[in-house]
Target: N-formylglutamate amidohydrolase
Amino acid sequence: MRHYSPYEIIEGNPANGLVLLADHAMNRLPPEYGRLGLPDSAFERHIAYDIGIEPLTRQLSAALDAPAVLGCFSRLLIDPNRGEDDPTLIMKISDGAIIPGNHPITDEEWQNRLNRFHRPYHQAVSETIARAAAAGGRAPLVISLHSFTPSWKGAARPWHAAVLWDNDPRAVFPLIERLEASGDIVVGNNEPYDGALRGDTMYRHCMTPGIAHALIEIRQDLIADAAGVAAWAERLAPIFAELNALPALHAYERHPSRTGAYEG
Model:
């Protein structure tokens, strides 16, 4: 079995104080999993990865000289943006697609996917954030990048971008304000979904230790080609730089989660 890395780290300059994350950057699978019993076309859909986010994250990381961590496995294998005890961690059905390779699944295989993919990815995120904190001598700002479908169950989604969050507004409000300032896009505030999800990436790495953060989603049709990715990188890079320059976003400040009390 060839070595398969579940993550990619773009080094950037950790002293800059900004870390980018892309949980669902890629639609890859290790060869031994084949296609999980699905047709190749399934891996071009949103059920497999966040369309447009890999090239967008790479361009933003380069423009901002910011470290980034990219997930290198499809969310159909195991979802890195779910807690280990989340029932949707390994999906049996996703947006109408039955995933034969995930059902039935043994406890041994469940643990194998946690150990080979989910846990190493989160270890890489933890270490990247820790390096940024040590290099900058302060809490880093963390921004997670995702994308969402233009419509859902036949209903069009009007938002061009969305900011999802739990209960720490420090980076969220300035981000929404700056996105809306151009006047040419509609920005969702916890739309099309709520950003409070116990055990997800932002909960685990930012809410729990008190690191300022935001999760931004871009509508997939807007970043489906190179021109769209470049346009959104040009739009977002100066906004992220402005946020990163705010001293209040580099302090540790733990906010209560809307999902309930923290453990420990």
In short: The chain has one domain: 7-250. The two ends are 39 Å apart (CA to CA).
